[in-house]
Write a structure and sequence with these properties.
InterPro entries: ArAA_b-elim_lyase/Thr_aldolase, Low_specificity_L-TA-like, PyrdxlP-dep_Trfase, PyrdxlP-dep_Trfase_major, PyrdxlP-dep_Trfase_small. The chain has 353 residues and is α/β, with parallel strands linked by helices. It is built from 14 helices and 13 strands. α1 runs antiparallel to α11 and α3 packs across α10.
């Protein structure tokens, strides 16, 4: 059976060119800074984002953890969104391992936090309060429908941070999706941040890895942090080789994922009993609300599974579908037919004109 796995873009398979690059990669000991392929990847990522240096790490969670532990000391505070990945889905690692206090600000539907809300959360100098050190943003914003944050907003947050002497970190796991969706160079989305992370193993389809990008001084300190959390890898060039291919070959094709997500959303929005807010479908993430009283999201997902369509249940009446490399326009057409069937009809549905 052909499986259409829409649970996440983390399920992507490495391309054939990635597999070849991995097999042929030149390697060394990266803890000693001697893996030539890792060094090439780091240099390429830093140049791509307009930063001085970069650090290869095992995952997006590690990238954020290393960044925040390097920015903040124990008892310091980070301002971040109440729906952010760092706050919700990383086991509270910055608090558990770094003693960093999270101060949440409500995320707006499009993934931003209001600048006024951020400013109101900044602590005044007071012996009773943890000192504010960092503002953390997420671009694109996973829980907010994969919404991209624009350059103007990022510059506003930067200006606010500068007024208060704070640093800015961007969780850019899907930063290239934001860049492609907005038609904006990724450097413009990175310019306002002191540090930016990017993930190689989501839409870019590499099997493993993320990068932290920032100044040379920050990355030197982050390298020490990576070591203390167990992230020092040895002959990691085998993994980095796929990351190089990801940056060279997989960015522009993200537009295909966005088009497929839009087609899926538009098709689902016409089905009685389902609701999709098309305003928020701008990248590769589609949230679907089940409005039929006699049906729940887990039951609908179970009905889709025998037809080989996998989606992520995110609540009793909500599910998420993420398009990615390996999901074609024809797969979207089949998925819409499967949804129609699961909703109680065998009528064919096509998004093709």
């Amino acid at each position: 059976m052909h499986i259409i796995d829409l649970r996440s873009d983390t399920v992507t398979q490495p391309t054939q060119s990635m597999r070849r690059a991995m097999a042929e990669a030149k390697v060394g000991d990266d803890v000693f800074g001697e893996d030539p392929t890792v060094n090439t990847l780091q240099e390429k990522a830093a140049e791509r984002l307009g930063k001085e240096a970069a650090l290869f790490v095992a995952s997006g969670t590690m990238a954020n953890l290393v960044s925040l532990l390097t920015h903040c000391g124990r008892g310091d505070e980070v301002i971040l969104g109440d729906r952010s990945h760092i706050f919700l889905y990383e086991q509270g690692g910055t608090a558990a391992l770094g003693g960093i206090h999270p101060r949440t600000v409500p995320n707006e539907p499009h993934g931003t936090m209001s600048v006024c809300g951020i400013e109101a959360a900044i602590r005044e100098e007071n012996v009773h309060f943890p000192p504010t050190r960092l503002i953390a943003l997420e671009n694109t914003h996973n829980r907010c429908s994969g919404s991209p944050l624009g350059p103007a907003y990022l510059r506003e947050v930067r200006a606010l941070a500068d007024r208060y002497g704070l640093k800015v970190h961007v969780d850019g796991a899907r930063l290239f999706n934001s860049s492609v969706a907005q038609g904006v160079d990724v450097r413009e989305l990175s310019a306002a941040a002191d540090t930016v992370t990017i993930c190689l193993s989501k839409g870019l389809s590499a099997p493993v890895g993320s990068l932290v990008c920032g100044t040379r001084d920050f990355i030197a300190r982050a390298r020490r942090t990576r070591k203390v959390v167990g992230g020092g890898m040895r002959q990691a060039g085998i993994l980095a080789a796929a990351g190089i291919v990801a940056l060279d070959e997989m960015v522009t094709r993200l537009a295909e994922d966005h088009a497929n997500a839009r087609a899926l959303a538009e098709g689902l929005s016409t089905m009685t009993g389902l609701s999709v807010d098309l305003e928020f479908v701008k990248t590769n993430i589609v949230f679907i609300d089940v409005e039929r009283e006699d049906l729940t999201a887990p039951v609908l997902a179970a009905r889709l599974k025998p037809d080989g369509v996998l989606v992520q249940v995110t609540g009793p009446r909500r599910m998420r579908a993420v398009t990615h490399y390996g999901v074609s326009a024809e797969d979207i057409d089949f998925t819409l037919t499967a949804f129609k069937k699961a909703m109680g009809s065998n009528l064919h549905f096509s998004h093709f004109p």
